[in-house]
Design brief:
disordered C terminus, alpha/beta, 11-stranded mixed β-sheet
């Protein structure tokens, strides 16, 4: 399909699937007749000359609405920022447009990225493209709008942000690929901060190759982002990884896959466990080896996450007071000499206020030692667990703890992204907040350690498929050592190819 026809169909799908509420601000159709034919002509000319701008030249890519663009409003799905237009464009968006991509609009999310179902949005909840037993299910969060936009064919690919699983979880629920790069590999400049030490811009697409195309464009050093990995360090990481890969090829080039015992939880649904086992068996048939590994700090990772992240959020969101940033309440509140309590109560949603309060408490003088400091220690233990099992040493930690014989170490970890199929909307409404947080149980460890991780949809075994369900896949995630992003993407391609021959329907690009 030509770029023009594909883009036109994707724009049309934004209208067809408007009820899914994937977009807060859809594509500006006013310049569609001029922009796309012009881009198509440019693309064909460059293709003939074999000098097209990039693999994503002429593609429509959606952007999560907490990533700044000067072309569209940036609201973070919050009443506080309704109508706000950024004076500058995020680095990742600049890289996309410089590569020839067209911005397909800004996608819906949980307010300020705080949620696991994309239900906490001022603009209404995102609805999953799929159903189970005829009922709509959770889109996952917080990048649910980006995942639904990709799954329903409203764009070629989409950007999301992943703090504790916010790209991988909605990707799993919507049957698409969702990639969280190593922390610092993609610029955060222009990304509205939720938790600075974990926020990572990720990519959602219908297949691994499309994900690789987008990642190749946005994975660059940004001197304006203090957390961005510089050019010299990037080269050092790539050199070390290349040497490691060449060394592995000497011994047959087969993957050593780790299966963490702590990820095989009692609450895991049979459909997810069977899909996991089936994938591991398929890899074994291809000659790859499977190894049981232990990540003992995993059991404490989720608790640590929900101490650290609200603490950072309470600090980051302090500026939304109607004076520095945000819409000011018409009702002035001078209670106890606080002039902005009405503004924050009116402009911030219930879940955001809950996490601000939780974070403010954990940073208080009476609680910081027992909560925040302890959580930081757990975070370090989580990182050490990964260092102990990966054959590729952490390239930024020369003296990192790395116990165990080399022949007992693994190249990747493969585990479910989430323990269950997406819950029905009616179940979400009855669920308490603690249960909602548990959806991040298996995604949080990689985020705490800053590791690359990717969700790949794999077929649900036929015996576990509901007769009235059109959801045909569950998500498995591949985790690798820090900096091994390219290797993780290649491993994901192996799993994608493994299942492509088994169930072709899972890999058909939806609506494209």
């Amino acid at each position: 399909m030509s770029l023009l026809r594909q883009a036109t169909k994707q724009i049309s799908n934004q209208g067809v699937h408007k009820g899914l509420n994937a977009f807060i601000t859809p594509f500006n159709g006013g310049n569609l007749p001029q922009t796309l034919p012009q881009r198509q002509g440019e693309h064909l000319k460059l293709a003939e000359e074999k000098t097209k701008l990039s693999p994503i030249d002429g593609r429509l890519i959606a952007v999560k609405d907490n990533i700044c663009t000067s072309e569209y409003p940036t609201t973070c799905a919050s009443s506080m920022l309704k109508g706000f237009r950024s004076p500058f464009t995020a680095t990742v968006v600049k890289k996309l447009t410089a590569a020839g991509a067209l911005i397909a609009g800004t996608t819906n999310l949980d307010e300020f990225g705080m949620g696991s179902d994309s239900a906490y949005s001022h603009y209404g909840p995102v609805k999953n493209f799929y159903t189970i037993d005829g009922e709509r299910v959770s889109a996952g969060g917080s990048s649910g709008g980006s995942a639904v936009a990709v799954a329903s064919g409203q764009c070629y690919a989409a950007l999301g942000t992943d703090t504790g699983g916010s790209v991988r979880l909605p990707a799993a629920y919507n049957g698409v690929v969702g990639f969280k790069p190593s922390y610092g590999m993609v610029s955060r400049r222009g990304v509205t901060a939720y938790a600075n030490s974990l926020d990572t811009v990720g990519v959602l697409a219908n297949c691994v190759s499309s994900t690789q195309e987008v990642f190749g464009v946005i994975s660059v050093y940004d001197s304006k982002d203090p957390s961005s990995i510089n050019l010299e360090t990037r080269k050092s990481i790539l050199d070390r990884l290349s040497d490691h890969v060449q060394e592995e090829k000497r011994y047959g080039g087969k993957l050593r896959v780790g299966v963490p015992v702590e990820y095989n939880t009692q609450d895991m649904q049979p459909a997810v466990r069977e899909a996991w086992i089936s994938t591991l068996q398929g890899l074994q048939r291809k000659g790859h080896s499977i190894h049981s590994v232990s990540l003992p700090a995993t059991k404490r990772a989720l608790s640590a996450y929900y101490v650290l992240v609200p603490a950072e959020a309470s600090s980051n969101l302090a500026k939304y007071d109607g004076a520095r940033y945000g819409n000011k309440s018409a009702r002035l509140d001078g209670t106890n000499d606080v002039l902005f309590s009405a503004t924050r109560r009116q402009g911030l949603g219930e879940e955001v206020r809950r996490r601000i309060l939780l974070g403010a408490y954990s940073l208080s003088a009476g609680a910081i030692d027992n909560y925040f400091i302890q959580a930081q220690k757990v975070r370090r233990l989580v990182q050490q667990d990964f260092n102990n099992i990966f054959a590729f040493p952490h390239p930024l930690m020369e003296h990192a703890q790395n116990n165990g014989a080399v022949n007992q170490k693994v190249d990747f970890i493969i585990a479910p992204t989430v323990q269950s199929l997406p819950p029905k909307i009616s179940e979400i409404q009855r669920r308490d907040h603690v249960d909602a947080y548990s959806a991040d149980l298996l995604t949080v460890p990689a985020s705490l350690a800053g590791l690359p991780a990717i969700n790949v949809p794999v077929p649900i075994p036929k015996e576990h498929r509901s007769g009235r369900s059109i959801l045909s896949s569950v998500g498995l995630q591949i985790l690798g050592q820090y900096g091994a992003d390219s290797s993780v993407l290649n491993a994901a391609k192996c799993i994608e190819d493994l299942h492509r021959n088994i169930d072709e329907n899972v890999w058909v690009a939806k609506g494209v």
